[in-house]
């Protein structure tokens, strides 16, 4: 999925100095951003106060939207470098096409994972014949320096492992949770899990003390470590936890994101994750000149042009503002 802002801000992310070494409860409000022709998303990362959680560097939550008489998601071909995209749905379908020739329809609770590596382009759209609702999250994972030049590839995993307890079902999207591991390829220690809680449930989820965590509320009324989290908001939790208390007043869905704090400092602009201003400039130039990113076949329409770069040099700094 693309960042479709016409004047995207440069974000400087990474480094361990601003990671809380203790548990915290920092509630992050979303920024509303239009996406494509008919979708508005709630952007949780990068946020005014926090830019990364482990290697997770971008989180958009969208829906639930009524698209019965609308085209739904329509995101034209666009480029990516230096990251992985994770598509996660609760309702609807998304048709993925990329410059490798991959074509896949991602459905609810299936993992669509694209590793951009050195360069890739892709398009995402609701199929012409689609269901009445669209609800999901789009996430990016920053690649460590030693892996960001890797060959691009796409994975579609319809079946994922689950962890269960009374009132709780956790689907492991990325990484490992309570000894269950996702088949999705990872390049740094991290976890992503979809948590489904039944009304009245109370559970304590085991987590890694060396990871920092955040929880995005997808739907329902739930508390995370005693803090009510409304749908579309995210609670940052810091590090040094061994378990995470969860409680639900209604049937609820949460997205758990965590990982070892990302030590490297990086620059993120538009759809590129890099380390320097010059790398961002080169990626933009390559996209606009038709180099390096390939061509997405089968999409009916033009690609998305890159916005103009800001008039200042982009410098990598820390993770929080």
Textual characterization of the structure:
InterPro entries: Pirin, Pirin_C_dom, Pirin_N_dom, RmlC-like_jellyroll, RmlC_Cupin_sf. This is Pirin family protein. The structure is a single chain. The protein is mainly beta. It has one domain: Jelly Rolls, CATH 2.60.120. Helices cover 4% and strands 48% of the residues. The protein has one helix at 277-288, and strands spanning 11-14, 23-28, 31-35, 39-45, 56-66, 74-80, 83-91, 94-98, 103-106, 111-115, 120-125, 133-142, 153-157, 162-165, 168-177, 180-181, 190-197, 202-206, 212-219, 222-224, 227-229, 234-238, 243-248, 252-259, 265-269, 272-274. Strands 2, 14, 15, 16, 17, 19, 22 and 24 form an eight-stranded antiparallel beta sheet that branches. The two termini are 25 Å apart. The mean pLDDT is 92.
CATH class: Mainly Beta
User: How many domains is the backbone divided into?
Assistant: 1
Task: Assign the CATH superfamily.
Answer: Jelly Rolls
The helicity comes to: under 10%
Mean pLDDT, rounded to whole units? 92
**Overall shape:** globular
Strand segment count: 26
How far apart the termini lie comes to 25 Å
Number of helices: 1
Order of helices and strands: EEEEEEEEEEEEEEEEEEEEEEEEEEH
Poorly predicted runs of 5 or more residues: none
Strand content is over 45%
The biggest sheet, with number of strands, parallel, antiparallel or mixed sense and barrel status, is:
8 strands, antiparallel
- How does CATH name the architecture? Sandwich
> Structural class of the secondary structure composition?
mainly beta
CATH topology: Jelly Rolls
- Chain oligomer state: single chain
InterPro entries: Pirin, Pirin_C_dom, Pirin_N_dom, RmlC-like_jellyroll, RmlC_Cupin_sf
Domain Pirin N-terminal: 45-141
Domain Pirin C-terminal: 193-293
Region (Disordered): 298-321
């Amino acid at each position: 999925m693309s960042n479709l802002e016409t004047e995207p801000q440069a974000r400087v992310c990474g480094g361990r100095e601003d990671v809380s070494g203790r548990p915290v409860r920092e509630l992050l409000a979303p920024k509303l951003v239009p996406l494509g022709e008919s979708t508005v998303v709630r952007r949780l990362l990068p946020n005014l106060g926090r830019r990364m959680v482990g290697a997770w560097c971008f989180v958009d939550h969208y829906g639930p939207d009524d698209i019965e008489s609308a085209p739904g998601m329509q995101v034209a071909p666009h480029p990516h470098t230096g990251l992985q995209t994770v598509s996660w749905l609760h309702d609807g379908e998304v048709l993925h096409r990329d410059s490798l020739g991959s074509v896949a329809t991602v459905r609810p609770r299936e993992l669509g994972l694209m590793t951009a590596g050195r360069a890739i382009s892709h398009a995402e759209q609701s199929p012409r014949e689609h269901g009445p609702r669209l609800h999901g999250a789009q996430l990016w994972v920053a690649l460590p320096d030693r892996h960001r030049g890797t060959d691009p590839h796409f994975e579609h995993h319809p079946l994922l492992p689950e962890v269960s307890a009374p009132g709780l079902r956790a689907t492991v999207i990325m990484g490992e949770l309570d000894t269950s591991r996702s088949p999705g390829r990872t390049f740094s220690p991290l976890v992503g899990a979809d948590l489904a809680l039944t009304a009245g449930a109370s559970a304590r989820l085991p987590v890694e003390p060396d990871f920092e965590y955040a929880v995005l509320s997808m739907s329902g009324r739930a508390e995370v470590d005693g803090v009510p989290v409304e749908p579309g908001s995210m609670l940052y939790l810091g590090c040094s936890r061994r378990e995470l208390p969860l409680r639900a007043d209604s049937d609820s869905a949460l997205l758990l994101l965590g990982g070892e704090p990302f030590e490297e400092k990086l620059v993120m602009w538009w759809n590129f994750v890099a380390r320097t201003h010059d790398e961002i400039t080169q990626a933009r130039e390559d996209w606009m000149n038709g180099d390096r990113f390939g061509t997405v076949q089968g999409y009916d329409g033009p690609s998305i042009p890159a916005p103009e770069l800001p008039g200042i040099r982009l410098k990598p700094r820390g993770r929080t503002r």
